[in-house]
Amino acid sequence: MVFWKTSPTASHAPGTIGLKMTTQNLNFLTALTGEAPNGTIVIPDSMNLVAKVDIKGPEYKANLRLKEGQGAMDVNAALKYHYRSL
Known about the structure:
Layout: E1 2-6, E2 15-22, H1 28-32, E3 48-56, E4 59-68, E5 71-80
Antiparallel strand pairs: 1-2, 2-3, 3-4, 4-5
């Protein structure tokens, strides 16, 4: 599921992007590593990813959660972009 919310009145409209997904068979990614398919690299299936990205002018914030079985990884990031004309 993906959603996008924004204000149509602002010239640099703030918004939120949300994403929920579940992976399936990702075995093709192993081939991209250049390693022989002998089981040294394993990419699990049925991983769940929930992501939210907030955009407000020059500020960007992202929150990601990747979960597989009992393991989980949380990633949070923020960026404030400063533009200078030459």
